[in-house]
Amino acid sequence: MNILVTGAAGFIGFHLAKRLLDDGHTVVGLDNLNAYYDPKLKESRLALLAPYPGFSFLRMDLADETGMARLFRDQAFDRVLHLAAQAGVRYSIDKPLAYVTSNLTGFAHILEGCRHQQTPHLVYASSSSVYGLNSALPFSVHHNVDHPISLYAATKKANELMAHTYAHLYQRPATGLRFFTVYGPWGRPDMAPFKFTKAILEGKPIDVYNHGNMERDFTYVDDIVEGIVRVMNHIPAGNPAWSGDHPDPASSPAPYRLYNIGNQSPVKLAYFIACIEKATGRKAIQNMLPIQPGDVPATCADVSDLTRDVGFNPATPIEVGLQRFVDWYRSFYKA
Q1: Which residues pair with 59 in a beta bridge?
Q2: Who contacts 69 (Cβ-Cβ below 8 Å, separation ≥6)?
Q3: Considering only CA atoms, which of 175, 302, 308, 303 is closest in space to residue 231?
Q4: Which residues pair with 127 in a beta bridge?
Q5: How far is residue 109's CA from residue 73's CA, in Å, rounded to a whole number?
Q6: The whole model's pTM is what?
Q7: Cα separation of 293 and 124, whole Å?
Q8: Which residues contact 331 (CB under 8 A, 6 or more apart)?
Q9: Which of 71, 123, 157, 314 sits at a 20 to 30 Å CA gap from 199?
Q10: Catalytic residue IDs
Q11: In sequence order, what are the residues at sequence separation of 6 or more whose Cβ sits closer than 8 angstroms to the Cβ of residue 11?
């Protein structure tokens, strides 16, 4: 297939593009290589994709309406896998308009492209952050998510609503995947595995928020990619059992689905830090702090729908995944 992967220079997008190329697909990668974090890391990821004969790269911003329309006019995509976004919960508190431009306007251009080109299936990245003030664990796609606590989360919820509208009005199949704390080699510098590993190896203190009383459903990137690849070939149809009297948020009479994609095994922050200490062979200097604005105390994914529909089964324990991340970090940064 000919597949568009947006955010191809990003953490998950890079791993996904590589997997698709290894599987024999043609991949068009799109990314704006912005400076939210070190563009050299993004360029290094792209350098590993460039040798594939089936890979081509387009540097462009999702907000470029003319360029995006031209892309969909010039290319016929069998799948659109949309991972590009302005990421980061805390950054959205300081720079909210960046999220409006990329995550709302940019996503509208993706939807318009899929509509006009009649793309068979759009799979897009949502986030566990949409659960916001929800406290019933595990988080289920059948729960309402109407109380986000960051603009990042609000834009991801908005993406789900926008995708449903296009599925309903234009019968464009769309599947949203709510990612739960993805980590692994080539991970982002603003995420805990990277920040903690860097600080521990340099003998610097790490900030431990909520005094360590956090739990996260850390999900290894290879498991995430496996889930995306399975979902892209599972094109949703309308749910004939859907009722407006008791509306199910996860499905619709339209060709639309939502899934959680996580490890379904939350890890306490203290144990997470202990795993990095073991992998690095160093003890962490811990600076205990209160919870940050926009953060939720715990996440846990109910992935039963994804398991039922595509056989998703996360296979990477946190101990193994963090060792792989630390090994990559040491190799890449000569640490």
Answers
A1: 31
A2: 109, 112, 113, 116
A3: 175
A4: 179
A5: 12
A6: 0.96
A7: 26
A8: none
A9: 314
A10: 152
A11: 45, 182, 184, 186, 187, 188, 221
DSSP bridge partners of 285: 205
Q: Whole-angstrom distance between the N-terminal and C-terminal Cα of the chain?
A: 39
Calculate the alpha carbon distances from 22 to 6, 27, 253, 254 in Å: 18, 10, 35, 33
Q: Among 45-49, 98-102, 161-165, 325-329, name the one with the lowest average pLDDT.
A: 98-102
Give the torsion sign (CA, 184, 188, 189, 190). negative
For residues 229-255, average pLDDT = 97
DSSP strand pairing (267-268 vs 215-216) = antiparallel
Q: Looking at the DSSP assignment, which residues form a beta bridge with residue 314?
A: none
- Residues 116 and 261: their CA atoms lie apart, in Å, by 29
Place of tokens 């566990």: 128
**Which helix (H) or strand (E) element contains residue 214?**
none
Residue bearing tokens 């290589």: 33
Q: What is the largest CA-CA distance in the chain?
A: 59
Is residue 210 left, alpha or beta, with left meaning phi > 0 and alpha meaning psi from -120 to 50?
left
Q: Which two tokens stand for residue 94?
A: 């300081």
In the chain, the amino acid numbered 225 is V
- Check if the beta carbon of residue 276 is closer than 8 Å to that of residue 191: no
92 or 281, greater pLDDT: 281
Residue 331, Cα to own-chain centre: how many angstroms?
A: 25
Is residue 99 within 8 A of residue 55, CB to CB? The reply is no
Enter the tokens of residue 228: 């995306």
